[in-house]
Design a protein that fits this description.
Rossmann fold, Dihydrodipicolinate Reductase, domain 2, 2 domains
């Protein structure tokens, strides 16, 4: 069934469920809770039927649909009658295409939380298929990929292109989920950035530099570490140079196999982890900045992907889109900040000369 044939306002909560594939995963649980908070009805989907049933005990009354990633018929049944699917089960190099295939067959919206460059790039290559199916498909609508794309787009505003965009991510710690560790083991594809308007592989070892984050992070040593934001931003913002950095502390946590998984710090299940994402955009000697700070990179992915889904469906978008193409990026960031007291955004929207900014 096509999303466009549903007899209700597109992008508004209705009886038509939203499939959450990987619902019992760490991020999937946040997505289920966020959909319920906004009035949607999630359908709990994933590979493990027993884990789905266990999750259903915490969310009584929700439908459950088990479907192996290599079982197209089961995936079709899982998505039947839904308005969209939010895909949360990586590694997306293995799971992305089968779930997107099922969404295309069903004619429903597709949204995921992928951080893997290669998987997101492969999804964008299917733009014509998404147009033909009449669906909106938005990969990487999460902390990695989505947040930086919204910030860069809000900073650019009326600028249709940029000379350089630099993205910096700071985490005060990183307690990785099992899914993050499995994805890291699977994702051995070379990383890339944009240099001179073209893709360029990141050298080994990756270059490092200091970045002056706003408080409480301050000056941090960072390394060039591009994730899916390089793909999402370059999808729609022409740029001669596009780099993405991360501070070293979380990478040390990630490399330490003894680092525990996320620990909840409150009743919502969110951890105490703090993050900052800062974006600098330069064009013709002018510079703009956009910054965001918040709590728990996994938890913030839930309102990011659900907000993106709602905007894309409400706007009747079609094709493979970057998160910032789903709706007005400034309005999306403002909505996220209004709903989460721990999430704050600041934009220096007026261009300033680089010399006056100390650049």
């Amino acid at each position: 069934m096509s999303a466009g044939t549903n007899a209700h306002p597109i992008g508004q909560p209705t009886a038509a469920p939203i499939a959450v594939y990987g619902a019992y995963g760490h991020t999937g649980r946040f997505v289920v809770a966020e959909l319920l908070r906004r009035g949607w009805t999630p359908r709990l989907c994933g590979r493990d039927g027993e884990r789905l049933l266990a999750l259903a005990e915490a969310f009584p009354g929700l439908q459950v649909a088990a479907a192996a990633i290599d079982d197209a018929a089961a995936l079709d049944r899982a998505l039947a009658g839904t308005q969209a699917v939010i895909h949360c089960a990586g590694p997306f190099l293995d799971t992305g295409a089968p779930v997107l295939d099922a969404a295309l067959r069903a004619g429903i919206g597709y949204f995921d939380v992928c951080a893997e460059q290669a998987a997101v790039a492969a999804a964008y290559e299917r733009h014509d298929e998404a147009l033909a199916a009449g669906i909106a498909a938005v990969p990487a609508a999460a902390f990695y990929g989505g947040l930086a794309d919204l910030l860069a787009s809000a900073a650019c505003a009326e600028w249709q292109a940029a000379d350089a965009i630099e993205i910096a991510v700071a985490l005060d710690s990183w307690q990785p989920t099992l899914g993050t560790r499995l994805t890291g083991q699977r994702n051995q594809v070379p990383r890339w950035v944009i240099e001179d308007g073209r893709q360029a592989r990141v050298p080994n070892p990756a270059p490092q530099r200091d970045w002056d984050f706003q408080a409480p992070f301050g000056r941090q040593p960072t390394t060039l570490l591009p994730l899916s934001e390089i793909v999402t931003v370059s999808r729609h913002l022409p740029c001669r140079r596009l780099h993405s950095y991360m501070n070293l502390t979380p990478l040390q946590d990630l490399r330490d196999q003894a680092t525990p998984p996320p620990r909840p710090a409150d009743a919502s299940g969110r951890s105490a982890q703090r993050f900052a994402v800062e974006v600098t955009v330069r064009r013709n000697g002018d510079m703009r900045r956009a910054r965001a700070q918040g709590r728990d990179i996994y938890a913030i992915s839930a309102p990011l992907v659900v907000e993106t889904m709602e905007r894309a469906l409400r706007g009747a978008k079609r094709g493979m889109l970057a998160p910032a193409q789903a709706g007005d990026p400034g309005a999306m960031l403002a909505a996220l900040a209004a709903a989460d007291p721990d999430f704050a955004v600041s934009l220096e929207a007026d261009a300033e000369r680089e010399a006056s900014a100390g650049a």
